[in-house]
Amino acid sequence: MNANEGGAAANADRNPYLAHHFLDKFQQDDAVKMGMWLFLVQELLFFGGLFMAYISMRFLYPETFLQEALAHLDWRLGAINTVALLTSSLTMALAVRAAQQGKQKQLVPLLGVTAVLALAFMGIKYFEYSHKIHDGLMPGIYYAGEAVGAVEAVHHAPQIFFSVYFMMTGVHGLHVLIGVGLIGYLMWRATKGEMNENNYSFVDNVGLYWHLVDLIWIFLFPLLYLVK
Amino acid sequence: MSGHEHEHMPLKTYFIIYGALLVLTVVTVGVSVIGLPSTLSIVVAMAVATVKAVLVGTWFMHLKYDRKFNVFVFLASFWFMAIFFIFTMTDLSSRGDILAVTGNFEQRMDEAIASEKFDEEAGDMTPEELGASLYANKGCVGCHSLDGSKMVGPSFKGLYGREEVMADGSKLTADDAYIKESILEPQAKIVEGYAPVMQDLGVTEDEIVAITAYIKTLK
Amino acid sequence: MSPQTANTYAHPENDLTPEVNYLNATKGLKSWLLTLDHKRIGVMYLVTILTFFMVGGLLALGIRAELFTPEGDLFTAATYNKMFTLHGAIMVFLVLVPAIPASIGNFVLPLMLGQKDVAFPKLNLASFWIYIFGAAFLVFTLIQGGVDTGWTFYTPYSSDHASGSVVLTLTGAFILGFSSILTGLNFIVTIHKMRAPGQTWRKMPLMLWALYATSVIQVLATPVIAITLFLLIFERILEIGIFDPSMGGDPVLFQHFFWFYSHPVVYVMVLPAFGVISETVSVHSRKHIFGYMAIAGSSVSIAAVGFLIWGHHMFLSGQSELQGAIFSFLTFGVAIPTAIKNFSWIATLWKGSIRWNTVMFYTLGFIWIFLIGGLTGLFLATMATDVHLHDTYFVVAHFHYVMMGGTLFALITAIHHWWPKMTGRMFNETVGKLTFWLAFIGYNLTFFPQFVAGTQGMPRRYHQYVPEFEVWMQASTIGSFIFGAALFIMLGYLIHSLFKGVKAPHNPWGAVSLEWETATPPIEHNFHGLPVCTKGPYDFDEIEEGA
Fold first, then answer.
1. Would B107 be classed as within a structural domain?
2. Number of residue pairs across A and C with CB atoms under 8 Å?
3. Span B162-169, mean pLDDT?
4. What pLDDT band is residue C9 in, cutting at 50, 70 and 90?
5. Is residue B118 included in any domain, yes or no?
6. By C-alpha distance, which of C386, C408, C404 is closest to C454?
7. pLDDT, tens digit, 9 for 90 and up, residues C331-381
8. Considering A117, B105, B188, C462, which has the largest number of Cβ atoms within 10 A of its Cβ?
9. Are residue B132 and residue B79 in the same domain, yes or no?
10. Domain boundary residue among B42, B71, B94?
């Protein structure tokens, strides 16, 4: 009945990446993968609150949300950022593939490209943000957009549009930055050869996280920049 | 199982998906530039975004090769988000009955702003002091005297509790309700011997309370 | 296998000689604070939660003392407001939400599954420290002078007007959410991927079903409160205007955000309680649980339906009548699975060999109290009666019957039931039973009069009240001090048992779920070898022999 007394001999040839409380690597990878999906679920619901704020405020102030979006957000910058994130998603997916196949030489450069694209995304965001701050297109009481010809505060609620804009893109940007940190850490581990075909679930999970960040931007871009 | 099968996903697939995502980005931008009517525009944009999300989820995130339960978990999160959106928006869009009673959102905000302004101006003044200041600033002083002399309108001196004879011959005692009505609807009741010339001066409810308090002090 | 020989995995020699257990395997503070052992983490949670329970409880006694007389003579109104706010915030965020899952759940879950640990031990430790970090914010708020928003943080009061460290409290609650999410995530994965060979879903103890349903809510609902508090923090700092009517926002929207989490979270508090009672009612009546699948299914359906009914907190908040009616209707739906549980427990007791011990006393106490709490919920779910009862002491009594009577009585039940397993000692049964009566009487005396005062119209959260309510309020205050005394006696005899208690056998209750098949207290890695699950968690075979 004591199916596995787990002698010293069995421990010796245990996979070094296998934690003590799992039976085998398959169980561990399976558990880790499911844990990651559950984490993504909570990420989605976290963003869900922001989308709820967008939907309800757009419902209350339809004209403002449409006018302001068109007049003061540059869809070209948004589109460039979309392409940057989509491309980084591709390179991330390829990086996961490289890790799974043990192609160490491909892994680090692919991760590097992903990180660079993410930083480019943040660079453009920085440019957009500083432009808005300069024009007084700020959230809440800091809104002063009348000077650049935007609608008057309070009644048409442009201050709420910019609140929603900064909250949504800000939280998303924070996730991009965390992603850059994770990818950097992966690169460091990968150069030491620790991210190989026997131990790629961390790469896989960062990949999933990164695709989710991309996925959220796929919805943010049309909602904030395009929909009239 | 999970994590082993998609090793065989050919490199070509990744680039096909990437190409499709780029094309869809062009489509969504293109639709926006053409400028569809607002409802159609959002439907198209969200449909395109959903297709893109499915592409990313199915191939880049390997859901096609993953355990079915993980797919279920991921989709469940959209289901619960939908509950949140649908119930909340049902409330927001069916609050019409309340809006009909209390006025629309802008009116309520106007009132809120007026009330805040009132609080600021009132500061530490007592209602009587505030009433005195309103008497001077709102234009009452032009037609209503404080010493009992007859001007365009009846004097405020001793007005509160006084019995007035109306133009139609009826009699009533000047109380809070009467003063309020006379300010909000000046033509509703006219004291005998005066012309119905008073205008709506845009006095708020808070201010009426203060003016009434002031009138009470004028014995 | 009978319970006497059940400790197959306890020790190779199968005897009671003391062996190295999880408590004495390693020594020193660091070995506790940085442990990855789920049992030690569970114990640390338990100690921390009980400490905060004491803080929240003392605040409650202060509130009751103030309400002994109609005049506000003990504290100022401002102090009183801060006291009930902190009482609520501490009890909800620091005590009730993690009470059973994080402490007892952490301890028993891997044991019941026949595993060495939860799926992610490091994450488990991280969530404990996130909890401590979040709690530190709330403690700091307390030192700073507190907040007076009420634990619900309704806008625009919390965003525009409230004084005090609102942002600090919000940050604390925000951080605590992540502790809850990570615990839930860990449990779901552990239950899915790590069950003992032979332990199918239908052979899991009902405690695990309850913890599973709880975890689903934690993962799905908690992120929404996180973003809500996040937005509220910015509402307060930047006046972003989403919830603030003076900036054009919608304060009722805040309540939707808030209750989308805060209603399901009452099931995070009470579902594990159902799990505990399902265990104890069966083990201590030595009878197979009645309606196993019905109880398991009702846990999951409560979790699902629990997401559809949050608006019953908002009937009088300016929510549309249509949406209110929908929420009211759906709220009645949640009564069905809850009633299924209650009937199943009572049916389990029927013709069982009931063991009249402390655990059974508390189990029956729970069933009684939760019945009252559940049924009074129906009055509040009905829109028309809610108009009268909303924000009165009726509501206060209702949610204390459900939350405190439900969760807390179940926590006490769980502590007594698993005490021998956790500590290796038996507590004094006689004192335990006497204390139960003190606690039970004190509890009901505290909260039952509040129903009466509430129906007569006494509003909640008032510092002073009209003299008509004095008799009810005085009964309530007296009850609360009796209850408080009972809890201190309980603390006393439990601590006493740690040093002077009789050494516990491996399986004092003759239970058949896997956690009783290891040593008492369990060894560091729970089991020697890998346990195999050969029968259901409630198959008490010697009962059939004796019958």
1. no
2. 140
3. 83
4. low
5. no
6. C386
7. 999 999 999 999 999 999 999 999 999 999 999 999 999 999 999 999 999
8. A117
9. no
10. B94
The CB-side HSE value for B50 (13 A sphere, CA atoms) comes to 8
For residue A35, the tally of other CB atoms under 10 A from its CB is: 22
Record: contact A227-B32, CB cut-off 8 A: yes
Give the CA angle between residues C280, C283, C287 to the nearest 5°: 125
- Total domains present in chain B: 2
Q: How far is B174 from chain C (nearest CA, A)?
A: 35
B77 touches chain C (CB under 8 A): yes
Q: How far apart are CA A5 and CA B33, in angstroms?
A: 69
Domains and CATH numbers, chain C: 38-542 (1.20.210.10)
DSSP C89-121: HIIIIIIIHHIIIIIIIHHHHHHHTT-SS-S-H
* CA atoms of C494 and C475, how far apart (whole Å): 29
Beta carbons of B84 and A90 less than 8 Å apart: no
pLDDT in tens, A85-142: 999 999 999 999 999 888 888 999 999 999 999 999 999 999 999 999 988 888 877 8
Tell which residue, C139, C143, C140, C167, has the closest CA to residue C153. Answer: C167
Q: Which of C370, C382, C388, C390 is nearest to C447 (CA)?
A: C370
Q: How many residues in chain B?
A: 219
Site from A204, A208, A216, A223 to mutate, B interface, most B CB atoms within 10 angstroms: A208
How many whole angstroms separate alpha carbon C36 and alpha carbon C124? 7
User: Quick check: C249 and A160 CB within 8 A?
Assistant: yes
* Average pLDDT of the residues in A16-39: 90
Contact C241 A60 (CB under 8 A): no
- Is the domain spanning A27-226 CATH 1.20.120.80? The answer is yes
Q: Band of the pLDDT at A13, cuts 50, 70, 90?
A: low
B90 and B142 within one domain: no
- Nearest chain B CA: its distance from A45 CA (Å): 6
Domain carrying residue B165 = 125-217
Out of A4, A31, A171, closest to residue C194 by CB: A31
CB C410 within 8 A of CB C272: yes
Question: What's chain C's length in residues?
Answer: 547
Question: Measuring CA to CA, which residue among C334, C353, C333, C337 is closest to residue C293?
Answer: C337
Closest residue in C to B107 (Cα) is C248
Higher-pLDDT residue of B118 and C98 is C98
pLDDT tier for residue B182 given thresholds of 50, 70 and 90 = confident
Residue B106 placed within a domain: no
Pick from A1, A27, A139: CB nearest C238: A139
Give the rounded percent of residues in chain C with a pLDDT score beyond 70. 95
* Closest-CA residue of chain A to C115: A21
ipTM exceeds 0.95, yes or no? no
Residue spans per domain, chain A:
27-226
**Amino acid in the structure at residue C64:** R
Interface of B with A in 106-165 (CB under 8 A): 106, 109, 113
Report the residue of chain C nearest A162, measured CA to CA: C240
Model confidence pLDDT, tens digit, residues C416-438: 999 999 999 999 999 999 999 99
Q: In chain C, whose CA is at the least distance from the CA of B104?
A: C248
C343 in contact with chain B, both atoms CB, cutoff 8 A: no
Question: Are B72 and B152 in the same domain?
Answer: no
Which of the other chains make 3 or more beta carbon contacts under 8 angstroms with chain A? B, C
Question: Which residue of chain C comes nearest to B92, CA vs CA?
Answer: C320
Inspect the interface and report whether the beta carbons of B113 and C308 lie closer than 8 Å.
no
